[in-house]
What we know:
The structure holds 2 protein chains of 2 kinds.
Chain A: H1 7-11, E1 26-31, E2 35-41, H2 48-51, H3 61-79, E3 86-96, E4 105-116, E5 119-128, E6 131-142, H4 161-172
Antiparallel strand pairs in A: 1-2, 2-4, 3-6, 4-5, 5-6
Chain B: H1 3-18, H2 39-53, E1 74-75, E2 78-79, H3 81-90, H4 114-125
Antiparallel strand pairs in B: 1-2
Helix pairs in contact in B: 1-2, 1-4
Amino acid sequence: MGGSWSFTKAYGPSPKAHMRWIWIDKFIEFTPKTSATALKNCSLAEEHLHDLYPDFPIVPHSLIVEGMAQTAGILVGEARNFKEKVILAKVGKAIFHRLVRPGDTILFKATVDQLNEQGASICGRVECGPDLVAEIELMFSHIDQNISGIKFPEHNFVFTEQFTELLANYRLGSGIAL
Amino acid sequence: MTHDEIYAKVKDVLVDALGVDDDEVTPTAVIRDDLGAESIDFLDIMFRLEKAFGIKIPKGELMPENVASDPNFVQNNTLTPQGIAMLKDKMPHSNFTEFEKNPTVENMSKLFTVEAIVKYVEGKLK
C-alpha cells in the first residue's frame, strides 16, 4: 500500500452521497473476490444506541446486519469493478450470540461463498475480541442482471462516495504524516 | 449418483433456501406456487445446487429468462407455438403435458417443479 493509488483512476468517479448511512469505520483486510474485514467502534455518543432500549444502550441487531451488508456489499461490488448495482436481496441466516454495547469494537468478517454475473452469496462473522457476536449469511443481487428484464437508472446509485472512500482509505494506508 | 440420492440432496437445498418443511418438498411441488419461492430465491437455489453437486449453472439454463417480453414467444399473455418450442428446447427437464393445455405466461411457473430440478441435475452430472 502507498500514497499514489487513486480510486477514481482505478474505478472511475463515484456519485456523492446525500446523507451518511455508514455503519463501518474502516477496512482492516481486503482480498478481492475472496474476503474483507471491516471494523466498527461503537460509541455511547451514537444516537441509535439509545433508541431501542433507552436505559440500556446496545447496537440494534438490524444495524449489525447492515454493517455486515455494507462490508460484504463493497467486497461484492469491487469484484466486478463497481460496474454492477449490488443490492442486498436476502438475509439467509442471522444468529446473534451476544449483545454489542458502547465501547465495544466489532469486526465484520465477510467471505465470498459464491459469485457470478447475477449476484453473490456471502458468509459473515461478527466478532468482538474473542467473542462471536453473530453469524450472518447474505445474498446480493446484481439488479441490472435481473431475470425480469426490469431497467434501472444507468448510473450506479449504490456505490456512493461514502462507501468507495472506505476502500480508498484502506488502500492508501493509514500513515499520514503531519 | 442415483436419482434418489440426487432427489434427497435437491430436497435439502430447497429446505435450506426456502425455509420450508421437509414434507412440503414433493416431486410434483411447484417451486413458486407450492413452495413460495420468489425471484431472489431462484438465485439462492442455483448457488446451493452448484455447491451441493459441484456443477456450474449458466445464466438462463435452469430457467429461461425474459421470455414474456419477446413478442415472438408471447402474444396476448399466451405462449406462441414458437415460444413453446423454445421452452421445450431450453427445458428438456420439465414436463409440458399440463402446461400445453393452457400455455399462459402465468402458468410458466408450473414447469419448474422439484422433479424438473432433479432431472436437470441428473443431466448435468452425466
